[in-house]
Amino acid sequence: MALLEIRNLSVAIPTPEGDVHAVRSVSLEIERGEIHGVIGESGCGKTMTGMAALGLVPKGARIAADRFHFDGEDLRENAGRLRGRRIGMISQDPAAALNPVLSIARQMDDVLRAHRDMPRQARRAEAVALLAATGLPDPERVLKSYPHQLSGGMQQRVVIAQALATGADFLIADEPTTALDVSVGAQVLALLRKLVVERGLTVLMITHDMDVIAEACDRATVLYAGLSVETGPVGNVLQQTGHPYARALLAALPDAAPHGAKLAAIEGSIPPPRSEINGCAFAPRCPQAMPVCAMQVVPERALAAHRWLCHLPEGSA
Amino acid sequence: MNRLVQRLGWPGTIALGVVLVIVLVAVFAPWVAPYPQQGVGAPNVAAKLSSPSAQYWLGTDHLGRDMLSRIIYGTRVSLTNGVLIVTFSLLIGLPVGLAAGYFGGWIDEALMRGTDIFLAFPALLLAVLMAAALGPGFLNSIIAVSVTWWPWYARLARSEVLVLRGQPYVEAARLAGVSHARIIARHILPATARPLTVQAALDVGPALLTAAALSFLGLGVLPPTADWGQMVDAGRKFFPARWWYSAMPGLAIFIVALAFSVLGDALRDRKGGASRGAA
Amino acid sequence: MELARYILRRMVLSAFVVLGVTFLVFIVAQVVPSDPASLYAGPRPTAEQIEKARQELHLDAPLIERFAGFAKAMATGDFGVSYKSRRLIAEDLRAYLPATLELAVFSTGLALLIGIPLGVLAAARQGKWPDRLGSLSSIAAVAMPTFFLAMILQLIFAQWLGFLPLSGRLSREISITAPLQMVTGFNLFDALLAGRLDAFGDAFRHLILPALTLASYPAGVAMRLTRSAMIEILERRHVTAARALGLSEPRILFSHALPNAMGPALTVIGLSFAYALTGAVLVEIIFAWPGLGRYVSEAILAKDFPVIAAVTMVVTICYVVMNLFIDIAQALVDPRVALS
Fold it and tell me: What confidence tens digit (pLDDT) does each residue in A265-281 have?
C-alpha cells in the first residue's frame, strides 16, 4: 500500500462569483521512501493539493475524493492531527516561513516542545543535532541568530530541520528551491535526497521546474488545470513523455532548445479556474488536438507504471 | 439603494444617511429649528433651565433658550469647523508634502524635519497653545487645530509622491525635459490629490471633535453663537441636576463624530474575506 | 552594533526635535500674542508699567537673542513667573506634574490591558460576535468626546451608583485629616512608601474614573491596531508554517503572532500617553484633578502665557522622551527595525 493515496481529489473554493476549481481531479500514489515530483504551471493546483494533504485549505473550501488516505488514515478527517506529526511542510520562501521576530533557538524549541517530551537541555541538544544534520556548519551560532541574519540557503536548512524536529516521515516540499540561487538550490535538493536515504523519509516535491524533477525525483506527476495528466517514473515521464502538455513543458526548458534559438512557449493560457471543463483541458492549446479532444472524456493510456491521459494513441508522439 | 448597502454595509449606509441629514439640518437650520430666534442667541429667560417637555423637546439652557434649536444651529459651527480644518490642513500639507517628495534631497530633509517638530507635540496641546495665543474665536480655533493637523497630510502626500516619482511615465517626462511645474501639475498633483482628499473627508469627524474640545475649553466660537462644545461646558455648572444642558450637545457631538467614523470605516474596509487554516 | 547606531541616531533626532519644539513654543507663546507686556504688567497697567514690563521681558531685543534667552531658561528649568499668581512656575510644575503623570501612566496601562486582549480575541474570532461587538465599541470609543464621557462616567458611577468618588485626587479624610507625605508625588507610591493602605485604596478609587475616561480612546485604538495586525500576521506564511509544524492554536496566537504585533502595541503606548497628557486638559477640569491640565486650563483663561508655554514644553518633552523609549523598545522587539 502506498503511503499517500489520492484518487480523484477535488478542491473547490466558493467565492461570490462562483466556485474556483483549484483542484479538479488529481490522482497520486506516493510510495514510501521516494521523492515524488508534482509539476505544473502556477494555478495548476499543485500547491492546493499539498495544502489539502496538510489540512490547510482556505476556510469554506470543499474537498472531495474517491480516496484521500495517508498511511491508511483518511486525510479528510485526520489531516489536522497528522499535520506536524507525520506530515511536515517545507515552504517555498524560507524567509517567509520563519517568524522574523523570534530567534531560531526559540522557533526550533517551540516545535520540539510540541512533539517531544524532553527536558529543556535535551531539546537544545536535539536542536543542535538537527541543524547539524541539515549541513549547517555552526549550529550553535545559528540558534542564536534571527532569520534575517541568515542566508536564504541557511534559512531553508533551518526550515528543513524544523520539519525533521516534528518527527514527520512525510514531507511536502513546496518549491523548496525557487527562492534560492541555482547552486544553493542544488545543495538543498542534495540534502533532501540524503535525508530521504538516511532517515527513510518520503517527500512530495511541488515544483514548476523540470530540472528539479530530473535532479531529485524518483517519480513525477504532471498537473494541468487541476488535473493530473501524466504520472510515472521520472525516466519515462521525461523521455517517453505521453501527454502533449508535458512535452510542451519539456520543450520550454532552456536546455532543450538549441543554443540561440527562441524558447518554445506554450501558446494560449490555462482554462479559467471557475470554468467547467468537458473533454481534454489542454485541447485548446494542444498542437495535436483533434475534434474529439474537446468533447469526449479522455481515456487513460498506460505503459507499465507510466500512465497519462490523452486521446492520441500510444506511441504517436 | 441595494448597491449602496452592498458597498457600505448596513452601518455605513445608516451613517451616510445620518451625515446627509445633519448637513441638511445645518443648511436649513432656520426652517428646521422650532425657535430660530433662540437658536441664534435670543434669550428667553422666563423658561430658563426647563426640563425636556412637549414645548422644549430637549429642555432649555440657563437663558431659557430651546436646546433643540441651539443644537440645530450648532450643526453649522460643528460641520464648518470639521470641513474648514481639513481644508486648511490640506492647503498647507499638500504643497509641503509635494515639494518634499518631488524634489527630495535637502528640501525633503528640511521640510520633513519641520513637520516632525509639529508632530512631536501632543496634538491637542499645540492646538490649545495656538488658540490661546490667537485668542478665542471661530476662525482662530480652526487655524489652531489646522496647525496641528497639516503635518499628517504632508507625510501622506510625500509618500504618495515618492511612489509616483518612480513611475516610468514621470521619469520619461523628466528626461524629455518637461518642466518641474508641468510634471507636478500634470502627473503628480492629480494622482496625489485624490487619496488625500479621501483621507481628509474621513478626517472631518475627528477634526470637529478636536474643535469641540477647544470650544469646551473656551477657545472656540464666542457666545451667543450656538456651539456644542461651549454648550457642554456651560452646562457643567448645572450638572447633574440639569443634566440635559450638557448631555444633549454632548450627545450631538458623539452622534456626528460616530456617523463620520462609521462611514469612514465602511469606506476603508473594502477588503474581501480572509482565508485561514480550516483545522 | 546596528542597534547602538540606531539608538544614537534616534537620540540625536530627538534632541533636534526638542530644539525645534522650543522654538515653536517660543514663537507661539512670545511672538504671536499681541501684547505680552501689558499682560505681564498686570490688570489695567499704566504706560510706564508697560514700558517697564517690556524691558523686563526684553521684548525690544532681537528675536534671536530673545530665543536664546528663552531656550537657556527652559534648559535650566527656569520657567519664569506666572503672570497671574506671580508664583514660580517651576514650583507649580513640581506639584502638578506627578499628578498628571500618575494619571497618564495608569490610563495607558489600562488602555493596553483592555485593548490588546480584546484585539487578539477579535482577530481570533474574526467576523464572529466578539469581533463585531469589539469593533463597534472601539468605533464608539473613538467618536466619544472625552469631556462628555467624563461627565457620563461621573453621572453613573459617582452620582447614581455612588461607589466611586466624584472628583479630586484624595478624600478629604485623607488629605486634610491625615495627609500623605509627598515623596515622589505619585500618591499610589507615596501611600505604599508610608505603609498607608487606607490612602492607597483611596487614591486608587479616585484614579479609576479619570483614568477610564482617558483610556477609552486609546483602548479602542489599541484594539483596532492589535486586531488588524494580528489578522495580517495570521495570514503570513510563517503562521501557516507553524500550523504545518503542528504547533497548537493558542501557542501560535500568543507566542508566534502576538510578538509580531507588539510593534503596533508599542505605538499605542505612545499614542495613549500623548492622549492622556493632552486629554488631561479636559479631564482634569471635570474631575478636579490637581495636575498640569487643570493648571494650564486656568492659565488659558487668564492668558498666562509663561504658564502655558512651560506646560507645553514639559509635556512635549515627556512625550518626546516617551517616543524615544518606544522607538528603542521597538528595535529591541523587532531586530529589523534598526536596519531600516
Answer: 677 777 887 778 888 88
Q: What is the C-alpha to C-alpha distance for residues A3 and A33, in angstroms, rounded to an integer?
A: 9
CB-nearest partner of C146 from B125, B213, B273:
B213
| A59, amino acid identity | K
Indicate the fold that domain B11-278 takes in CATH.
MetI-like fold (1.10.3720)
Q: How far apart are CA B125 and CA B137, in angstroms?
A: 17
Assess A99–C contact: CB distance below 8 Å, yes or no. yes
What confidence tens digit (pLDDT) does each residue in B91-130 have?
999 999 999 988 888 999 899 888 988 988 887 888 888 8
CA dihedral B34→B36→B42→B44, nearest 10 degrees, is -10
Burial class (CB in 10 A: 0-12, 13-18, 19+), C179: exposed
3-class SS shares of chain B: helix, strand, coil, % to 5 = 75, 0, 25
- Any idea what DSSP says for residue A207? E
Q: How far is CA A222 from the centre of its chain?
A: 11
CA distance A72 to A88: 17
Residue B231 exposure: Cα atoms within 13 Å on the Cβ side: 37
Residues in chain A closer than 8 A to C243 (CB atoms): 56, 83-84
Residue B277 sits at the chain A interface (C-beta within 8 Å): yes
The answer to whether A95 and C256 have CB atoms below 8 angstroms apart is no
Residues contacting A250, CB < 8 A, separation 6+:
A210, A238, A241, A256
B240 cis-preceded (ω within 30 degrees of 0): yes
Is B177 touching A (CB cutoff 8 A)? no
Q: Does A144 touch chain C (CB under 8 A)?
A: no
The answer to whether the CB of C286 falls within 8 A of the CB of C280 is no
CA–CA gap between residue B208 and residue B259 (Å, rounded): 12
Higher-pLDDT residue of B173 and A4 is: A4
Torsion of CA C221, C11, B109, B101, to 10 degrees: -30
Residue at C231: amino acid letter = I
Q: How many CB atoms lie within 10 A of CB A9?
A: 26
* Domain coordinates in residue numbering, chain B: 11-278
Tell the burial category of B52 from Cβ atoms under 10 Å away from its Cβ (0-12, 13-18, 19+).
middle
Q: Are A7 and A66 in contact (CB under 8 A)?
A: yes
How far is Cα B265 from Cα B273, in angstroms, rounded to an integer? 16
| Euclidean distance between CA atoms A47 and A41, whole angstroms | 10
What is the bridge-based pairing of β-strands A219-224 and A170-174? unpaired
CA atoms B103, B104, B109, B115: torsion sign? positive
Q: Look up cell 528543513; give the residue.
A: A160
Phi, psi of A267 (to 5 degrees): -65, 150
Cell numbers 512670545 correspond to C30
For residue A171, the SS3 value is strand
Residue-wise pLDDT tens digits, A231-249: 999 988 888 888 888 888 8
Average pLDDT over residues B262-270: 73
Q: ipTM of the assembly?
A: 0.81
Q: Which residues of chain A does B270 touch, with a Cβ-Cβ cutoff of 8 Å?
A: none
What is the structure's pLDDT at A258?
A: 52
SS3 A314: coil
The residues in A 150-179 lying below 8 A from C, measured between CB atoms, are 159, 162-163, 165-166
CA distance C56 to A271: 85
By the 8 A CB rule, do A241 and A230 touch?
Answer: yes
What is the spatial distance between Cα C9 and Cα C13, in angstroms, rounded to a whole number? 6
* Distance separating the N- and C-terminal Cα atoms of chain B: 39
Tell me which residue has cell 480572509.
B274
